[in-house]
Amino acid sequence: MEARAAAKKGMLVYVPSINWRPSHSQELLDRLEDDGWQVHIFEHNKRTYSLYRAEDLVQKLCVHMRAWSGENHGDDRPGNIVMVGHSLGGLLVRDALMSDDDDASIAQRGMLPGATPWTDRVSRVVLIASPNAGYDFHSEPWFRKWLYVLASLFGQFMVEQFEMGSPYMTELRLRWYKYMVRRSGDDNNRSRRAIRLVQVFGDEDRLVSSRANEVDPTVLTNAAVITIPGASHGNIIKLKSADSHDRYELLYNAVNGDFRNMAIPATPEAQEPVVFILHGARSSSYGNWVSGSARLLKNPAPGHDRTWMKATIVTESYGYFGIFNFVNPWIRRRNARRLLLSYGEKFITHNPNNMYFLGHSNGTYMLGRCLEKVPSMRFRRIYLAATVLPKEYEWKKIFARQQVGHFSSGKWVNGDVHCDRGRHDVPVGWLCSILHGLTKDIGTGGFEGFLESPQGLKEHNYGYAGGHSSMLLPKVSAGERSAATERRLTEIAAFIRHGHDHTEPTSGPPNVLFALASRVLGEVSQPWSLAFLVVIALSISSGAAWYLPVVLASVYAVVTLARAA
After folding, report:
1. Count of other CB atoms within 10 angstroms of residue 292
2. pLDDT by residue (tens digit) across 481-512?
3. SS (H, E, C) 81-150
4. Which own/partner contact pairs does 485-488 have at CB distance under 8 Å and 24+ positions apart?
5. How far is CA 141 from the centre of its chain?
6. Is 361 left (phi over 0), alpha (psi -120 to 50) or beta?
7. CA nearest 342: which of 275, 403, 402, 401?
8. How high is the pLDDT of residue 161?
9. At 453, is the secondary structure helix, strand, or coil?
């Protein structure tokens, strides 16, 4: 659509969804243009199976916005900009607005004298059937799910980034909430318009029907919600002859209406603590520590902070997570999205300064993966038991990005991460050592300790006597087990609530042979080792002299032991 040179109301930018065709929105945009808007369409032409990064598409939208708004040329510069996005197009609108509304980005853009950033001139964002929390992967047909699995071996469909609980979607959701809170009560020195957020839903939309997608506008002070009767996800922008008048009036109101007396009241941010507790792979074997920890966290000892009695305990259970699931990177990483989805829900409704994490084994992997991929995710304190994260995990980066701690009177205060280990932890010491050679996001940090030790990361010199659950369920006689477990969980709860240090284990270092076996297994799965084993196998199968495989095997054993030692 060719934009009109003169526009009475300002510039309207329409960002369509994937699988968009001009006919879908032609009548709507023509009528808005006739009403006095200078209309531009960001025609990205992406489809469901486009192998494309959402971040790259957002940068293209930003480039178009700078040109259309007159940032870098002397043409007419509209003083009022309204951005309208349909479905996933609304998510692109949100990301582009935040990406370009950054002091560093603005300073690098080389705007002409007198030009103001286009982001400062945006007065309204209209999200039509946009999945604020992402779309539900489980609603996809089975053949499409398997297609995503196969495609993940070579790349990623762009639409997968917009799935509920995906790292991109969670980061976008958290950033958007913080941005809109800041923009509605602007604390920036630049003179910027306050943004009115208008969310438009269809009452027959099956794709954006979950509460997770509808809750976001209810927590913002400058938001309004419009529901269009008889509208589904795809046809909400189509002006049918039967209801074209009513539907257009509602969409017209979304773009032009005065919502000062109609905006929904923002839901107050809850101040009670929120604790995420994630079990390991064998939930049934070690599950009683989860309920025990939840009970102790909500029932503090006399004289302690009584606000914890109202704490929200999120015990996200994913059932038994078998060895096949754990060693499969695609399944393991996708399972981590459960935590992201739960965290996004609580971040929107609760104070992120009061969020805590407690996890064991695979639950700690889910946390580490999420922290790495979602920089806006943060916790005040973190407790890790028998973590399966690699010893090379970048804790310094996590602390530098302010992901562990809280804000107090506007200043950041670093929090604490406490890691407990078992002396003879076979799953971490041996299995994760093997897997580390094949996939670097799994490792032996819960057995050997971490290489990085920033201030705030706490580890004991030794592990607890016993194996994979010894730090949660002490290895003592049957008669003493209940009382010993209660003491340990009480100590962990005290750390989560107030940061109290744990009692140092007195069991001493792990057995020398056990530790050596852990390092040897780590070497066996390294690329050089696998190549060496292939050479040995070929020497045997080729019928070479009997002593050649023996010599090669001896050299291999010596090199492996030397590297492990």
Report:
1. 19
2. 888 889 999 999 999 998 888 888 877 788 88
3. EEEEEECHHHHHHHHHHHHHCCHHHHHHCCCCCCCCCHHHHEEEEEEECCCCCCECHHHCCHHHHHHHHH
4. 485/288, 485/289, 485/292, 486/292
5. 24
6. left
7. 275
8. 86
9. coil
**pTM exceeds 0.85 for this model:** yes
Evaluate whether 230 touches 203 at the Cβ level (below 8 Å): yes
Kindly list the distances between the CA atom of residue 541 and the CA atoms of 121, 440, 531, 537, in Å, as whole numbers in the listed order.
Answer: 73, 32, 15, 6
Residues 6+ apart with CB under 8 A from 211: none
Nearest residue to 493 (alpha-carbon basis) of 356, 378, 361, 306 = 356
Q: Which residues contact 563 (CB under 8 A, 6 or more apart)?
A: 523
Any idea what DSSP says for residue 320? -
- DSSP tally for the chain: helices H, then strands E: 22, 14
Q: 532: pLDDT confidence band, cut at 50, 70 and 90?
A: confident
For strands 411-414 and 405-408, give the pairing.
antiparallel
Q: What DSSP designation does 389 have? A: S
Is residue 475 within 8 A of residue 488, CB to CB? The reply is no
| Contact (Cβ atoms closer than 8 angstroms) between residue 390 and residue 368 | no
**Token pair for 523:** 């070497």
pLDDT tens readout for residues 237-262: 988 645 556 888 899 999 998 876 66
Residue 26's nearest CA partner among 310, 237, 201, 267 is 237
CA distance 543 to 484: 60
Angstrom distance (rounded) from CA 123 to CA 253: 15
Output the CA torsion 398→403→404→409 (10° steps). 140
Could you tell me where the beta strands, DSSP code E, fall in 298-343?
312-314
What distance, in Å, lies between the first and last C-alpha atoms of the chain? 69
Cα atoms in the Cβ-side hemisphere of radius 13 Å centred on 57: 27
Distance CA 518, CA 526 (A): 13
**Rounded mean pLDDT of 377-392?**
96
Cα(116)–Cα(376) distance, integer angstroms: 28
| β strands within 324-464, DSSP E | 355-360, 381-385, 405-408, 411-414, 416-420, 457-459
pLDDT digits (tens, 9 = 90+) for 151-192: 665 666 778 888 888 999 999 999 998 888 777 654 444 556
* Per-residue pLDDT, 152: 60
Q: Would you place residue 420 in the very low, low, confident or very high pLDDT band (cuts 50, 70, 90)?
A: very high
Neighbours of 246 (CB within 10 A): 13
Beta strand 405-408 with 355-360 is unpaired
Separation between Cα atoms, residue 370 and residue 359, nearest integer Å: 13
At 341 the three-state DSSP class reads helix
